[in-house]
């Protein structure tokens, strides 16, 4: 394992999940006007996330070049970096991501309107480029595009789940009970769609990464063991989400004492597990499934 490569991939996955998922969830649950008002309140945080995603994307390119050259990242071998950017899809899509994030930061700083739909389109497109940073990047012809499409679906669905939890944690202390209840109810039906998309796209990805004749041997590999851990954490998240939906959310609707605090703590634990899953995803993308 290359710790730096995994760290930069995790930085990309985490920041872009929040940068895409929070605005998308707010728009789906509250509508455009309320979502825009909330996002304006957290404009500095969004800018910081975009800047971090930009930095980890650039560092990821340096890590890719160093890995291909068999050298350390620093001092930077700019000739190798230029060669990698010109000749590899991973680096080229990373540069596209850098461009999208730069434009996003400029709009957050300079455009007084800061059109939420445009910001969401830019962040979603930047997140989608992550599909070219792992195993899907090596696919060819029609199956390669199916793999990348499934990966994009997986990335955006996960971003919506992560972003939805983060938005709820931020706004649960808000005294506006009506808005918080609306978000919780929306998260219930949005969550069902997210899980369906994750399961379908995950199965497609697995089928295209691991040949059928290698499935039985998968538990013997590091990739297989990490994948099993990822699935276990995913199941734990589902159990926590079910507890939030069927036990804590109805108590919140009845305005039972201390429910908002309990709900916020439960969602925070679920979000932490979500980031652990993203760490495993970042690691899995650097491994050979057959080793």
Fold topology:
Elements: H1 3-30, H2 32-41, H3 43-69, H4 78-87, H5 89-110, H6 116-128, H7 141-171, H8 177-209, H9 222-253, H10 259-284
Task: Write a brief caption for the model.
The protein is 80% helix and 0% strand.
Structure explained in plain terms:
- The protein has 291 residues and is an all-alpha fold.
- The protein has a single domain, classed as Formate dehydrogenase/DMSO reductase fold.
- It is built from ten helices and no strands.
- It has helices at residues 3-30, 32-41, 43-69, 78-87, 89-110, 116-128, 141-171, 177-209, 222-253, 259-284.
- Helix 1 packs antiparallel against helix 6.
- The longest helix is centred in the middle third of the chain and has 33 residues, at 177-209.
- It is globular, with a radius of gyration of 20 Å.
Mean pLDDT: 90
Helix content: over 70%
Low-confidence stretches: none
- End-to-end separation in angstroms reads 12 Å
How would you describe this structure in keywords?
single chain, 291 residues, mainly alpha, Formate dehydrogenase/DMSO reductase fold, 80% helix, globular
